[in-house]
Amino acid sequence: MCSLDESELKSAILNLLANARDAIPEGGEIIIQATNILVKHDSESINPEITPGEYVKLRVSGSGMNRKSIEKAFDPSFTTRETSVGIGLSLSMIYAFVKRYDGYIHIHSQEKLGTTIMIYFHRAEATQLTKN
């Protein structure tokens, strides 16, 4: 089990939301959801690296991404934004945060239909957020 730093978690969520917002400049719907989930050994996992166990799943849905964007989404030097727009490193920073806490991240997308970014953290027995 792991504990998460509250400020890092808030920053990751805000960065995910900023990415989703920037991806739909004409407007649209962004959904954020957190749920408890049990991943079984024999279940079809959306991330083949994920180990069986209890997780908290954070899901953010927004605009669709093309295959090239998905493949490079966590690369710090890759951006689909103009150089003068946004922070550009947010998905790579989110990836580093997720890995630092032994979590898993997966992008499911259909171009022009929608993208869902799912983050899985090992579920703690009780609230174990730490404040800085």
Automatic annotation (TrEMBL):
InterPro entries: HATPase_C_sf (IPR036890), HATPase_dom (IPR003594), His_kinase_dom (IPR005467). SUPFAM superfamilies: ATPase domain of HSP90 chaperone/DNA topoisomerase II/histidine kinase. Signal peptide: none annotated. Residues 1-125 form the Histidine kinase domain. Transmembrane segments: none annotated. PANTHER family: HISTIDINE KINASE, SENSOR HISTIDINE KINASE. This is Histidine kinase domain-containing protein.
